[in-house]
């Protein structure tokens, strides 16, 4: 697997939330999850690749607790600062490299991941672990890019997937045992290139349930 660009994540973690585009993306993902999943105050939730916790902070008032996992210490430091400042007691950050350590034990009522799966080379293996960690009837939500040409990241050589075809991803999830699968376009990220051209990168939300 290509080495994960952890150093670059450490460098951009502190100013991450200052980018209003990133904030808007996270809020849109949270809103879309709320529209797709019947959240309730007793839900135990796992977020994989939580970053600075933008999505988790937007969902916490609708669920019981969120276990927030990320492999970047600095990203988690930003989340822990928010937790301390706002006296949050229902988000539990965990520093974890899933290839070296087991994910937190289930069962979870909801597992979601936002703009993270395209960084995971063996993504189908990870999705299988998600299935195992879900409670019967639990939901999985994946927010990520539609297939693109490798222009989204400045270091494409480190990125194993240039987005996904959600139809193919849906087929793989169906083989694993997920049901009630559906996806939709939820957002478009706009990035200005070095030549001044603005390029659009559409995002989807794919959701399903464990039998």
TrEMBL record:
Q: Which Pfam families match?
A: Methyltransf_23
List, in alphabetical order, the Gene Ontology terms for molecular function in this entry.
Answer: methyltransferase activity
Q: Name one GO biological process term.
A: methylation
Q: Which domain of life is it from?
A: Bacteria
Question: What InterPro entries has UniProt attached to this entry?
Answer: SAM-dependent_MTases_sf
Q: Which CDD domains match?
A: AdoMet_MTases
Q: Which UniProt keywords apply?
A: Methyltransferase, Transferase
Q: What is this protein called?
A: Class I SAM-dependent methyltransferase
Q: Which organism is it from?
A: Caldithrix abyssi
């Amino acid at each position: 697997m290509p080495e994960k660009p952890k150093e670059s994540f450490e460098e951009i973690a502190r100013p991450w939330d200052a980018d209003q585009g990133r904030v808007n993306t996270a809020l849109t993902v949270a809103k879309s999850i709320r529209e797709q999943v019947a959240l309730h105050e007793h839900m135990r939730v796992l977020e994989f690749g939580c970053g600075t916790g933008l999505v988790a902070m937007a969902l916490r008032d609708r669920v019981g607790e969120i276990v927030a996992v990320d492999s970047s210490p600095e990203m988690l430091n930003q989340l822990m600062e928010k937790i301390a400042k706002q006296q949050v007691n229902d988000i539990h950050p965990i520093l974890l490299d899933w290839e070296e350590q087991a994910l937190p034990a289930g069962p979870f009522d909801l597992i979601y991941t936002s703009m993270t799966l395209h960084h995971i080379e063996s993504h189908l293996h990870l999705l299988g672990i998600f299935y195992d960690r879900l409670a019967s009837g639990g939901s999985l939500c994946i927010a990520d890019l539609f297939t693109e040409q490798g222009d989204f990241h400045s270091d494409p050589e480190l990125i194993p997937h240039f987005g996904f075809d959600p139809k193919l991803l849906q087929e793989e999830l169906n083989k694993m045992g997920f049901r009630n699968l559906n996806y939709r376009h939820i957002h478009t990220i706009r990035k200005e290139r070095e030549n001044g051209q603005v390029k659009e990168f559409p995002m989807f939300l794919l959701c399903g349930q464990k039998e």
